[in-house]
Recover the amino acids of this structure.
């Protein structure tokens, strides 16, 4: 190892979570770049702006080229007055009430995405809790319960209760004597009674106890008629056959567990905060058409999307390329062939999101749903209720659908306005208030987003190819970064951590005397 | 039924949750009070202020007598500069940083407490999500895992996984053929695979899959070394014997499910909002010493706690008494004997809460715990992390203990400063940062709170006595209200719903011609 390389990467912070995180606190790039200090960053998304911010702070001369008219990339929020034109040339004008918004891309920040959270703190982005799980939201299948949506709390409590009852019975009847020691059997049954809210006979039944978890048929009150009325659990067979149990774990990965956050005012508050730092380094409306490394330099050509004219050529000592492979594959470049092959074969997921504005927050006023997600087998997949401005009057915006896979193709075949009409039609099967309350909508299909042509990158063979692509080769002047070059694909954290590793590699090369390697 | 009585109670609102709630929207007391319009309200807690607000709006002449120097009762927040003197005469001076606070009484508002939520909206109280459940908080027993706190996500995911594995095994081996139809068996096993994150062999094992839920040993990152390292589940026997499963359902009653709220800035924002409406009706520092109903009137005597002097006597046509039975039982009153007996026998729970301020938010910075609750078998019972000002610098205040039962007696025998020292000592076994970071603390023992002598009322025989106490008898000029007269004891919702029913009864009597009943 050469001088600065080991000591330099990260200031080992006093962060207590450091042991299980790959983010080790603010990056510290010490030492002077002696092998060239000019860096071209391609793309002003979070990966690009992280690189620009940190490299400039480390003494580099940084320039950023960005395709769009503003920074942020997929860290993007649509608000009233915004327009968006897709690759079909269809323009949507967002007509939401002031203050309302939809995040077509990332929309949540898990508690363990330490990189994003740290930059939010450094850059002054205010965060508020995102409500992921809501027991009062619905689970819905068209072929279950006659198409009537069921409350999550009913399905979750009943499933757990029935499972606990069955296992307690099997244990009690000696069926599991080979599996569970005698000493553990009583503890197991006690625990199942707690876990499943079973009665003293280990049965899951209608009771005050179970109603405390699944909800009462009539809630407790005060004064006369204050006594609550218990609710009747679903029988297990109905519940099993309904298939609604499929969604019970949706909110329970560490990426979705409480507390999970969102920026106050929209996800692009993060993009705007980064842009405030590095705006002076960014050339907007610059469509990069080639990226060629040649010995000690990198040469990039771009077209000015606004003013046309001949391609502009820029040369630098180093390049951090955050352009998605879906776009990079269409450009001229001379990346080593192993990397080029991955660029060419990476598939981009084509998720679709709907932002639907309604005249009032009927989900709160009528259904007592404050934030959280309803899941359905309809092509919209889910409805997510806003985790902000609870109890407010005026219009509110739902995430009216978040669609992948085959359902995405169906919507992709439509114009946005037709897709929005279908999202409203589907949603009305869960919320009958939809047709009367619908105000306006917007639909973003990521396969049609000009600057990414997809939502996030999927590797053909990540285990085989990953290391070779993220590593800067000895002859490379270009280092690649972005969510696609991480184990947190589609997450902003992946973009930031990838970028930090990329610039750490670049800095080793730029500060290295060249001897000893 | 007489004229207005049926139609009058509540304006049947268009609230969609009306069918299962006992709160039917804003109360509508129509018709003129013809049988006396002077009402004395005893107590300016939420029950008293609700009564005062609504009765004045309905045309009554309302006066409120309050023991304290300010309104709110148990809806109470302690902030920097506040002092509090308990019945032992011990005064605590709260020395928190500006903006920090602790709620010694109620601290959360469930999504289905429609009454509280509606008054918050009417009165302009801003609400924010309260984080109840946090998978990254701890479960702790002194005798489990050598006293090392365990992450909730480890215990919850592993318990569920092992339970699912056991039941899948029993089902697969034909042990449950009598309980589960053949058609359901495969569905059950499929569902258990989803529910418990089992592998294709229905086993709960170390894997990428299970690590997504319980957390990785090393989290996913970007660039080189981005691949996550799976974590190893605990074996079931260790988990069962640890007893940590006891707390897995703590946050899962409908009173604790997402979304659950708190006022921005402290719970007494609700008290302050009510007080803004009815402050002109309230006489503060008035210690009521007698309440006598006599034919058509009620006579109340109170002492001026500030200026001493002879008792002041007030007479009214009606009285809404929200004084806790723990206090009422010590006053002169002539309530009917059946009611008086309940007043005398109601026991008040003696919970204790600790507010501990620390020099920094180490639970966030070191442990990545943002809101939520850690449970322990130590006498402090739990530690709750603040659901506000996440990521902020400066000092932060924990709920450093919330204690009932036998543990409460232990702390009650101490002076507040000694109790706080013990809360810090206990907490340090979970968070070793405690001793170094501790700044100041406050301890409120509800048995020592002068205006309640307890936390909430517990009935000797609620089923037998409840109806007779909440019902206004034909000769009564006094109606009783408060959380103790509800099926939501200790909750603000219980106080408000009790009060609304009380004033509805009073209004029937006051507007009734007396004929026909």
């Amino acid at each position: 190892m050469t001088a600065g390389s080991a000591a330099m990467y990260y200031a080992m912070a006093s962060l207590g979570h450091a042991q299980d995180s790959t983010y080790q606190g603010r990056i510290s790039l010490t030492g002077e770049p002696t092998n060239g200090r000019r860096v071209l960053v391609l793309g002003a998304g979070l990966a690009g702006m992280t690189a620009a911010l940190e490299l400039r702070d480390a003494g580099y001369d940084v320039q950023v080229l960005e395709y769009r008219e503003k920074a942020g990339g997929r860290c993007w929020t649509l608000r009233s007055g915004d327009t968006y034109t897709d690759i079909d040339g269809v323009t949507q004008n967002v007509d939401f009430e002031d203050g309302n918004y939809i995040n077509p891309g990332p929309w949540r920040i898990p508690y363990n995405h330490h990189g994003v959270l740290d930059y939010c703190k450094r850059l002054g982005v205010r965060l508020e809790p995102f409500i992921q799980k809501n027991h009062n939201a619905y689970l819905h299948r068209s072929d279950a319960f006659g198409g009537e949506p069921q409350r999550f709390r009913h399905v979750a409590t009943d499933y757990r209760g029935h499972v606990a009852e069955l296992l307690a019975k099997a244990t009690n009847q000696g069926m599991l004597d080979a599996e569970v020691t005698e000493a553990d059997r009583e503890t197991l049954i006690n625990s199942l009674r707690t876990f499943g809210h079973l009665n003293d006979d280990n049965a899951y039944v209608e009771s005050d106890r179970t109603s405390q978890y699944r909800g009462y048929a009539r809630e407790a009150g005060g004064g006369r008629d204050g006594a609550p009325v218990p609710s009747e659990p679903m029988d297990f067979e109905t519940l099993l056959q309904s298939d609604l149990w499929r969604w019970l774990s949706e909110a329970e990965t560490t990426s979705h567990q409480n507390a999970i956050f969102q920026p106050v005012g929209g996800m692009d508050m993060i993009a705007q905060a980064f842009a405030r730092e590095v705006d002076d380094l960014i050339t907007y409306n610059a469509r990069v058409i080639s990226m060629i490394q040649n010995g000690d330099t990198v040469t990039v050509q771009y077209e000015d999307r606004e003013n046309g004219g001949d391609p502009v050529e820029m040369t630098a000592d180093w390049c951090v390329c955050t352009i998605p492979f879906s776009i990079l594959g269409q450009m001229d470049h001379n990346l080593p062939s192993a990397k080029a092959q991955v660029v060419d074969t990476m598939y981009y997921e084509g998720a679709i999101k709907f932002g639907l504005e309604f005249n009032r927050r009927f989900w709160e006023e009528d259904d007592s749903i404050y934030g959280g997600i309803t899941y359905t087998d309809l092509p919209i997949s889910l409805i997510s209720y806003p985790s902000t401005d609870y109890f407010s009057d005026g219009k509110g915006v739902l995430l009216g659908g978040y669609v992948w896979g085959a359902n995405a193709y169906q919507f992709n075949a439509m114009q946005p306005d037709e897709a929005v009409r279908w999202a409203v039609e589907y949603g009305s099967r869960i919320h009958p208030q939809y047709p009367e309350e619908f105000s306006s909508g917007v639909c973003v299909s990521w396969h049609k987003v000009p600057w990414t042509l997809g939502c996030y990158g999927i590797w053909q063979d990540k285990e085989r190819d990953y290391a070779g692509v993220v590593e800067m080769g000895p002859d490379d002047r270009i280092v690649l970064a972005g969510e696609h070059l991480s184990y947190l694909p589609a997450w902003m954290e992946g973009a930031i951590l990838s970028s930090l590793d990329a610039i750490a590699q670049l800095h080793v090369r730029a500060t290295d005397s060249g001897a000893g390697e």
